[in-house]
Design brief:
Elements (H helix, E strand, L loop, with lengths): L1 H16 L4 H21 L5 H5 L4 H32 L11 H6 L1 H4 L5 H10 L1 E5 L5 H11 L3 E5 L24 H12 L4 E5 L5 H8 L4 E4 L4 H14 L3 E7 L2 E7 L8 H4 L12 H4 L4 H19 L8 E6 L4 E6 L14
Parallel strand pairs: 1-2, 1-4, 2-3, 4-5
Antiparallel strand pairs: 5-6, 6-7, 7-8
C-alpha cells in the first residue's frame, strides 16, 4: 500500500515539475489508485497482487474517504477566499459609479462646493501624464493619486539613488537602484488602489512625445532639462493640450499653466531659448532645499485638479514665483508672443 501511495505522490510531483495543469497532476495518481481499488474489489483473498497492493479494499476506502475530506476542505476554503477577494477588490477604475469606499475616500472633495460629486467624477475620468518622477513629480504624483485621478502616466528613465531621498519623497531607501517609474507606481497604488497607473520607462524625445501626449488630457512637466521641456511643450501645443510646468533651484521655484488653445502663452513664449548652463545650474550643482519641490509639486497637482474640475482660477497667463528662503511669492503676467517659434507665426 505504501509503495502505491509513493508512486501516486511521485507522479503528482513529476507533473508539477513538468508544468502540467492541476487537473492533469491529479488525474495520473487518481488513475493509479482507481486501478488498485478495482484490483482489490475483483481479486480473490490471498491473491499475491492483492496482497502487494494493500491486501484489503477497506484500507483503500479509508484512504479515499480521507482524500475526499481533504479535497472538500480545500474546495470550500477556495470558495471562501474567492468570495473574500471579490468583496475586498476595488471597483474597476473605468466604472463611472463610486463605490462606498471611494465615497469615504473622497468625502472631503465632495463636500467642497467648487468640486462636489460632479468634479470628483471628472477627476476619476481624467488622464494626467507626469513627466519626471523626481523632486517635482514625486509630490505631484502623490496628490494626483490621492485626489482620485483615474489614469496617471509616469515618464522617467532614471533609477532611484541615495541622493534623491532628501527631496523625492515618493521613493524609499529600499527603492534604491529601482526604476523610478516602478517605485512611484508601487507607492501610488499602495496609497490608492482605485487609480490606474501607466509606466513609461524612457526619456522623452521630440519623435515620440507627440503620440504619448495625445493619449492624455493634461501634462505635468517636472523635468530638470530644457530639451525635454521644449519637446513636451511642442507636443502639447500641437495636440492642443494644456501643460503645467514648474522648475526649482536652491530656495526658489516657479510654475505656470501653458495653454495657447485657451489664448495663454506656451512655454516657448515665456522661455524662447534655454539659458546658458552657468545661469541655470542643476540641483546637483547648486543644491536645493528638500521641502521646496514638495511645495512646487503640490502646486502642480493643485493646478491640475482645478483645471480638471473647473474650480477657481488657474495660472494661465501668469507665472508664479515662490521664494521659500524669505517666505515670499509673486505673480508675473505673461502673454503669448505672436512670433513664437512654437505656437505663433515664427513656427
Amino acid at each position: 500500500m505504501g509503495v502505491v501511495l509513493l508512486l501516486a505522490a511521485g507522479l503528482y510531483v513529476l507533473g508539477r515539475v513538468m508544468g502540467a495543469s492541476k487537473l492533469a497532476r491529479l488525474l495520473l495518481p487518481g488513475l493509479v489508485i482507481l486501478a488498485v481499488v478495482i484490483l482489490q474489489a475483483t481479486l480473490p483473498a490471498g491473491h499475491a497482487l492483492k496482497e502487494a497492493t494493500g491486501g484489503s479494499l477497506g484500507n483503500w476506502l479509508i484512504v479515499l474517504g480521507l482524500a475526499a475530506l481533504a479535497g472538500g476542505y480545500s474546495f470550500a476554503l477556495g470558495l471562501l477566499r474567492a468570495r473574500h477577494d471579490k468583496a475586498e477588490a476595488p471597483a474597476p477604475v473605468s466604472s463611472g459609479a463610486f463605490s462606498s469606499a471611494e465615497l469615504d475616500r473622497y468625502a472631503r472633495h465632495i463636500v467642497l462646493r467648487e468640486i462636489g460629486g460632479p468634479g470628483q467624477k471628472k477627476l476619476k475620468a481624467a488622464k494626467v501624464l507626469v513627466v519626471g518622477a523626481g523632486g517635482l513629480g514625486a509630490p505631484a504624483l502623490q496628490y494626483l493619486a490621492a485626489a482620485g485621478v483615474g489614469t496617471i502616466g509616469i515618464v522617467d528613465d532614471d533609477t532611484v539613488s541615495v541622493s534623491n531621498l532628501q527631496r523625492q519623497v515618493i521613493h524609499r531607501d529600499s527603492d534604491i537602484d529601482r526604476p523610478k517609474t516602478q517605485s512611484a507606481a508601487d507607492a501610488l497604488l499602495a496609497q490608492n488602489p482605485f487609480v490606474d497607473v501607466k509606466l513609461y520607462q524612457r526619456r522623452l524625445g521630440r519623435e515620440d512625445t507627440a503620440e504619448l501626449v495625445s493619449e492624455y488630457d493634461i501634462m505635468l512637466d517636472g523635468t530638470d532639462n530644457f530639451e525635454t521641456r521644449y519637446a513636451v511643450n511642442a507636443a502639447c501645443v500641437a495636440a492642443g493640450k494644456p501643460l503645467i510646468s514648474a522648475a526649482i533651484t536652491q530656495w526658489e521655484g516657479q510654475i505656470s499653466l501653458y495653454d495657447p488653445s485657451a489664448d495663454a502663452p506656451c512655454y516657448a513664449c515665456v522661455f524662447p531659448k534655454a539659458p546658458a548652463a552657468e545661469l541655470a545650474p542643476s540641483c546637483a550643482e547648486a543644491g536645493v532645499v528638500g521641502a521646496l519641490p514638495g511645495v512646487m509639486g503640490s502646486m502642480m497637482a493643485g493646478e491640475a485638479i482645478k483645471w480638471i474640475t473647473g474650480a477657481g482660477q488657474g495660472l494661465q497667463g501668469r507665472l508664479m514665483i515662490y521664494d521659500l528662503l524669505y517666505a515670499e511669492s509673486r505673480v508675473i503676467k505673461v502673454a503669448r508672443r505672436p512670433d513664437c517659434a512654437v505656437c505663433g507665426s515664427g513656427g
